[in-house]
Design goal:
Elements lengths: L1 H35 L6 H16 L4
Helix pairs in contact: 1-2
Pfam families: DUF6726
Length: 62
């Protein structure tokens, strides 16, 4: 019975790890983009570029 529980936990962890790992990278990127967006003139352009890069990181199939 312990082996079955261990297998189920490992199976669930392996399915959730990709989502978690990409969020660990993309959430700080989005936070930095939000902070940079307050800079006049170039802030919104930089925010859009960083947000686009965070979208690409979210789409990585890990």
């Amino acid at each position: 019975m312990n082996w079955i529980k261990l297998f189920v936990v490992l199976l669930l962890a392996s399915q959730l790890s990709g989502c978690f790992l990409t969020k660990v990278v993309s959430v700080p990127m989005r936070a930095v983009g939000a902070v940079i967006s307050i800079i006049p003139v170039a802030g919104n352009t930089a925010h859009d570029a960083i947000d686009g890069a965070a979208d690409v990181v979210d789409d990585v199939p890990i």
